[in-house]
Amino acid sequence: MNEQNINPGIFGLGNPNNAYSQYFSGRSWLKMLTVERLVTANVTFEAGCRNNWHVHHKGGQILLVTAGRGWYQAYGEPPRSLKPGDVVNIPPEVKHWHGAAKDSSFAHIAIEVPAEGSSNEWLEPVSDEDYAKL
């Protein structure tokens, strides 16, 4: 997918997400919005891009969907289709993934919920077989 066909939402595309590319299948971009007190970023995914399964220990995460179509799935639960205006409140310790639909770019604001001793644990990729079923 050409970058001109990617809708990053109102905050813009940002920079290639090179620091976390090992945890994504496909290309993504990251634009940090705040880094003090409440870490907040605009994350943009090309069509078909998704992140690995991961867990936010202690703090959790909130996603605010701003553009495109995507998916969220908590481990052991059915996938949830996402569109602009959707909010996903991910409690701490929930294994999950999120990313773009096969045929649409996707952008969300990711808010790291602060907590003492919080950390993120990156796990295995979402299998191509499971993703193809969406």
UniProtKB/TrEMBL annotation:
Residue span(s) of domain Cupin type-2: 43-105
Pfam families: Cupin_2 (PF07883)
Domain of life: Bacteria
InterPro entries cross-referenced by the UniProt entry: Cupin_2 (IPR013096), HNL-like_cupin (IPR047263), RmlC-like_jellyroll (IPR014710), RmlC_Cupin_sf (IPR011051)
Record-linked SUPFAM superfamilies: RmlC-like cupins (SSF51182)
Name of the featured protein: Cupin type-2 domain-containing protein
